[in-house]
Amino acid sequence: MAEEYLPALEALVLHFKRLPGIGPKSALRMAFALLDFTNEEAQDFASAIINAKENIVPCEICGHICEGARCDICGDDRRDRSVICVVEDSRAVMALEKVREYKGLYHVLGGTISPMDGIGPDELNIKTLLARLDGVDEVIIATNPTIEGETTAMYISKLLKPLGIKTTRLAYGVPVGGDLEYSDEVTLFRAIEGRRDI
Amino acid sequence: MAEEYLPALEALVLHFKRLPGIGPKSALRMAFALLDFTNEEAQDFASAIINAKENIVPCEICGHICEGARCDICGDDRRDRSVICVVEDSRAVMALEKVREYKGLYHVLGGTISPMDGIGPDELNIKTLLARLDGVDEVIIATNPTIEGETTAMYISKLLKPLGIKTTRLAYGVPVGGDLEYSDEVTLFRAIEGRRDI
Predict the structure, then answer these.
(1) What confidence score (pLDDT) does residue B4 get?
(2) Of A122, A93, A121, A91, which is closest to residue A107 (Cα–Cα)?
(3) In terms of DSSP H, where are the helices of chain B?
(4) Chain A interface mutation, best of B17, B53, B90, B94, highest count of A Cβ atoms under 10 Å
(5) pLDDT bracket for residue A4 (50, 70, 90)
(6) Distance from CA of B59 to the nearest CA of A (A)
(7) CB atoms within 10 A of CB B115
(8) Could you tell me the domains of chain A?
(9) Can you tell me the mean pLDDT for B41-62?
(10) Which candidate, B6, B4, B26, B46, places its Cα nearest to that of A57?
């Protein structure tokens, strides 16, 4: 299919196809939409790509994305420095920040332990986590509830327990507004297991 | 939601959100995927945008996208110059070309008549169609089977009939491989109406 396109269109389609969730048809639709942008809009889009790539870097403390040496959260004196929440990536930080409930710091692992993909503990920001535990009372492990996320959570908790640091994990259960009928069995099992007095 | 992003990330998300079918969550996912591109890949992506926008222009004859003055189809001597297929956009040309059945030329309208959107006949490439009818025996109107596509087809056929040019419309019916049960009533009505001897 792709070989029938104009070279300039094909190049654009190939780039769009590399984005997550974008198949050949969506990529073509996007490329056509882009042709309808004004020259200025297309130029702005291209600049935004270069600019984001050049200026967004990991925070030197926690690994969350930032545009300086350290992120807004690490640089915020009002945050509770005795709690660190460990997450897989910056998207998780942003999701948790939207809740406006958590006031501690974060640590972004940059992935999960996944032997299938050749990612071991050394490929993740685990050493930098161990190096910043001075004055930390609790580490909340908030990796995703997947097999890799669980493996990573177990691995980190085993490293932390001997250090006498309280290690917790986000609660599992039926999502609020969800329907028991549509919850999978593992989630329901965890919801029963983690039941609380009311 | 967006106001909590880094400015460079937010700019990128806003551009992705302008693409068809991309909501805030997909746009954010794409922006993060882009941060994982290498610098060279991001640079290539940005260049592909600029390049496509600068080099892809409408064919001076038919309006189909091309990278020179005229498109490959108009420039191909083997095409039958006595038939013109009128379509809404270049994507329709590409869809029809994939069939490898049609050997005539095309004419890209650049949209459909849509009073709701303030698009009248003068906003479409209709005058350029009327100007290239010398030696043309048949005009196949292949606008989409939507209300706007039908309106546009009717409008053009009324212009062409007094000129003595055979004007045809693509056949409507049940899609091949489709299931009658899932076909809508209008399609079924058209399929019955357009039935043929076997």
Answers:
(1) 67
(2) A93
(3) 7-17, 24-35, 39-55, 90-99, 127-130, 147-160, 185-193
(4) B53
(5) low
(6) 12
(7) 9
(8) 7-55 (1.10.8.420), 79-170 (3.40.1360.10)
(9) 96
(10) B6
